[in-house]
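Reply to dn_fold:

You asked what the input looked like. This is it:
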Amino acid sequence: MSSAIRLSAGHRSVYHCHRIQTFALGIPPNIDDFSQTGMDSRMAQAKSRSSAGSAGAVDQSTVPPLGRDAVDDAAVMATSEIASSGSNGFEYEADDEGLDYRRRYRGLIGVSSKVPIRDRSVLSLVYTPGVAEACLAIKDDPLRSYDLTCRGNTVAILTDGSDIFGRESGPPEAAIPLAEAKSVIFKTFAGIDAFPLCLSTHDVGEIVETGVSISPTFGAICLDDISSPRAFTIADNLDKAADIPVFSNQHHGTAILVLGALHNALKVAGKKLEDVRVVLSGAGIAGIGVARLLTRAGVKNLVVCDRAGAIYRYRPERMNWAKAYVAKETNLEQRSGSLATMLTDADVFIGLSTGDIVTEEMIREMAPNPIVFALAVPNPEIQPEAARRGGARVVATGRSDFPNVMDVSLVFPGFFRGLLDSGARNIRLRMMLGAARALADMVPENELHADNIVPRIFDFRVAPAIAAAVVRAAIEADEASREVSAEDVAAKTRRYVYEGRLQPARSSVRKEDRSLREEAIDLRERHGGILEIRSKIPIRDHHILNTLYVPPRALVPAHVIRDDPSTVTELTAKGNLVAIVTDGSAVLGLGDIGPQAALPVMEGKAVLFQTLAGVEAFPICLASRDPDEIVRIVTAIAPSFGGVNLEDISAPRCFEIEEKLRTALDMPVFHDDQHGTAIVVLAALLNAAKLRTCGLDELRIVINGAGAAGISVAKLLNAVGAADIILCDRQGAIHVDRKERMDVSKRAIAEITNHARKSGTLADVLPGADVFVGLSAPGTLTPEMIRSMAKAPMIFALANPDPEITPDLARSAGAFAIATGRSDFPNQVNNSLAFPGVFRGALDVRATAISDDMKIAAAHAIADLVTEDKLTPEFLIPDSLDLRVAPRVAAAVARSAQETGLARETIDPAEIEMRCRDLVYEGTIAL
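and this is what came back:
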């Protein structure tokens, strides 16, 4: 008989599993068998033995049925019951309340701007041109990224999901609900923004490289739900390679929790840490992590058991390198035998394994007044009442419906708060010991008793106390890179809990002659960057905690997604989430400033996504320049996202990266510097041609600038019928016979442009042209060049922040219509007119790609918003803050995707437009 959870009466959907395991709020179960992919050869002693799925399963025969009393808390699930089933199933109700919440809100978390965009003045600080000031400040001092961006308060939750289902593997997307729940815990108890990155790879080397590459975006990394022993290898290598702290929740968090609880339990039992005999059941990442910390804390007599019994040096069966490692530090008497044998005369039992493996008789054989931590969830190794009948003095479980609930959420929010605020680069033993002691001290001596050895989950004093302890330890260990006091960090954490903000309210720069730089820097300093992770369903009470965040109910969405991966877009934030990926090599007119300095621009981009189309976007700034490596990393993190927006990656690498990602991923991939620019240029040119009463096929077009934007503009104009296009770079006109300064992208564009093979400089090829499109550098177009063009030429001088020629000079030279990339001149060609709506439409119909047809549809939608009665040379395209644009573009893109077979969902484009309007005007996220 296998276990099954029936969450209410009625028709059930069944999902099979070998075991039921906890995640953020509980304790991982025993992990003994490992399917190792790409294990570091120096650490691994055996390769994967089969392709039967992820590591860490408990044999089905060892998992007993859950008892009817396993979940009995009326506040947790008033209508639920626990039942046995012969179908090997994890059972749940189709109308489960937790699933309903997730469907209505599309997951538990969202990405929001801390600074609402009310008008153009705020936009100029959040995005261009003010964002450049923050970028330059970080370029001069990389540590400023912690103060001027979200990085200083943001943690990456990195998981491959290999420790969720045991032997039965699942898609990486199944890990998203669990990681989202953990993100809410981070935010609720310590004000930390934690972003889930669920990986499509189990390869140790690839996970390490991914963690290192994403580190410019984050202040710390939280590893979770990665099976042992791979998790130790990953943590060890990441710790050495990354310049930010790496914390393994199952390893470090569980160990701190157990040690803190043990301090108090020993007081109740009248025993001392150094004298007790401890038996630990479970040799997975949690068990080994706890064993390591307990030995370092002073436990001298400790035996770790797995299904094969006591672990000892040179044990011949069921060993791996992690067990061999722990065998060197434990079981010094080299005892062998079963768990029951080891428990004889033991003072402490710590269960991190599976349910109902300890009997009342086994407890009776322990030393007088034993301590029992039966932490398997949802079914403990022994039920508390049975342990007490056997003589246990103190009993703790991982369950919220019994006294002494030992919940790792008591640890990690405060621990990370201390790491981030002290600027610690590494995790040291004294930090863990200090955190455990702080946790224990939260139960005063006069309140300490057998049923009260750890604080309650909703004790909001815990995170500030642990944060302060970590800061003190970081200072003592010389690991703190910031000047901060433990008391200030504790106060900061309490401030968030009770006031909803980490920093005290502070007014903006107050002086008449303040500069743009001062305002832009001040805005980001006051808010700690402009992005944050928000909880869509805040934890208000135990009911919502248990419905969404505590096993077994919180495991339901993972099983639903495992069985039907398509449900991930309705149960998590994935369907409305875009990764803004950059390597910082070509940033917004600033050039190659690197990934850290690029982060403010990516934050600004994310704000535009959310403000203009309700799309939630998150920056991923990569410390890598190799195209294949970038493709591999983005492919690895793709399960967390619904689309990928490439940004500020230099040419020609950007073309290769985009093409490979489009091939590798079944989702929208859009390089905004290319396609966003091309869409808006086309929209403006469509309307300019209307004013000239001619078609695009009648125009001679010269484009100056053969980078990502210039080449993409040429391609899209060619796709709509513009046949006479010449593209120039610093070497002059590009044509098929040119040999100098030609790369793959230039050779390709030469095949479809400049059919007359004209050569020479920009000045040589411009005479007689109808249109100039500048995507190059300031001052490259002169009035004399404009005078050589055809009558009433159209000048799109789009270099930022300074155009190729100023509008007044262009007008004096006879220009008919003038566009720039600046907001202080008419006809701003701004990518924000395109990318929010393009992604909104693509996400809503779950498009597999973004095609030229979709881009052309977007351009027509933008152009058509300028009606004929309003169309003038000074008003070719809508304003960048025209909130009608994104809904109209979304509808056009969705319609095109459906007509061309790129959409997975069929939705009326009018409905998509109305949804987008709701998001823009009302802020609703449930789509």
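The radius of gyration is 30 Å.
Hope that clears it up.
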